[in-house]
């Protein structure tokens, strides 16, 4: 199976991505690094430890990283993910699992350098940790097989501002460093596809009476309520789990190699990912941009993979 590091700002959907990765036989989670994003670094790290311990995979190291974006101030998403980041689920649970006494950017570099098998990074939060790793080790791309990131939007509207997706908006300077780093394969899983990957009541019912059924109902409940306000349907957009699923089954999305840049100095457009569909900027493609998704196949994969029997 494919060796991966996952970088998260756990987050309702980050947590679901972690569950998917841990239970998939097609990826082997070498480590999980955490970053400031939806919630503070401290909360993202705590949530990640809770999720990892809930799965029983406490051997997976959880490594904290940046506690703020490279140059900007934090922008939390408590309205969507709840005060605690995972919609109030696992509130009473104090994990025995503790984070490593290490730093994400350094850990990423070490892991990449010592890895004897191909390694993929899956990024589901702002790109601060990877940007810091690249600043410290500009040759990092030579050690990595692929980087898959959930972020941006190229052919649709934003979800924080009219044009910007959240992970890009929070740390656009970091995103620029990643876009320009020269990765062998940099795959974007943006709102163009993640918006079409919706977890609905029917999926929750399939998960009822499985190990994570109750957790997922609780964790996604407020998120779904917010989603109804804006979109009129009860659903949870599976942004981060789709990025994980692309590592498991790349054919779930249809990609096109294109040049993508990001706006960092605009009154209205900071964090906008600008994709040069018509080659007007005369630049080499740097991103495999996901433009279509087989949403049903993805949700089947997700539900099937995490349908673990209830204990006891
Ligand atoms: C992204 O923003 C976060 O709120 C989610 O966890 C996801 O990574 C979606 O725009
Ligand atoms: Ca996230």
From TrEMBL:
Transmembrane segments: none
Name of this protein: Nucleoside hydrolase
Keyword Cell cycle appears in the UniProt entry: no
GO MF term list: hydrolase activity
Signal peptide: none
Organism: Alkalicoccobacillus plakortidis
InterPro entries per UniProt: Inosine/uridine_hydrolase_dom (IPR001910), IUNH (IPR023186), Ribo_hydro-like (IPR036452)
Keywords from the UniProt entry: Glycosidase, Hydrolase
Domain Inosine/uridine-preferring nucleoside hydrolase: 4-299
Record has Flavoprotein as a keyword: no
């Amino acid at each position: 199976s494919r060796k991966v590091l996952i970088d998260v700002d756990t987050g309702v959907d980050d947590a679901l991505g972690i569950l998917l990765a841990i239970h998939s036989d097609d990826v082997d989670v070498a480590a999980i690094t955490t970053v400031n994003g939806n919630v503070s670094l401290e909360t993202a790290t705590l949530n990640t430890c809770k999720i990892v311990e809930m799965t029983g995979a406490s051997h997976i190291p959880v490594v904290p990283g940046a506690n703020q974006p490279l140059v900007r101030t934090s922008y939390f998403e408590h309205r969507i993910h709840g005060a605690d980041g995972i919609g109030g689920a696992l509130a009473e649970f104090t994990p025995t699992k503790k984070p490593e006494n290490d730093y994400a950017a350094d850990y990423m570099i070490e892991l990449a350098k010592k890895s004897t098998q191909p390694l993929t990074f899956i990024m589901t939060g702002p790109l601060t940790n990877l940007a810091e790793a690249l600043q410290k080790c500009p040759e990092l791309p030579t050690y990595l097989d692929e980087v898959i990131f959930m972020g941006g939007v190229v052919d649709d509207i934003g979800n924080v501002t009219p044009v910007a997706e959240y992970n890009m908006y929070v740390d656009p300077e970091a995103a620029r460093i990643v876009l320009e780093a020269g990765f062998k394969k940099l795959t974007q899983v943006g709102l163009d596809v993640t918006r079409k990957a919706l977890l609905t009541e029917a999926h929750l019912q399939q998960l009822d009476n499985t190990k994570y059924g109750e957790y997922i109902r609780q964790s996604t409940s407020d998120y779904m309520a917010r989603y109804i306000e804006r979109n009129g349907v009860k659903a949870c957009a599976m942004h981060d789990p789709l990025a994980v699923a692309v590592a498991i089954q790349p054919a779930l999305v249809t990609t096109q190699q294109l040049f993508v840049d990001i706006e960092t100095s605009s009154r209205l457009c900071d964090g906008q990912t600008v994709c040069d569909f018509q080659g007007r900027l005369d630049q080499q493609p740097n991103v495999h941009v996901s433009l279509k998704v087989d949403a049903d196949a993805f949700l089947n994969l997700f539900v099937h993979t995490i349908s673990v029997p209830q204990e006891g």
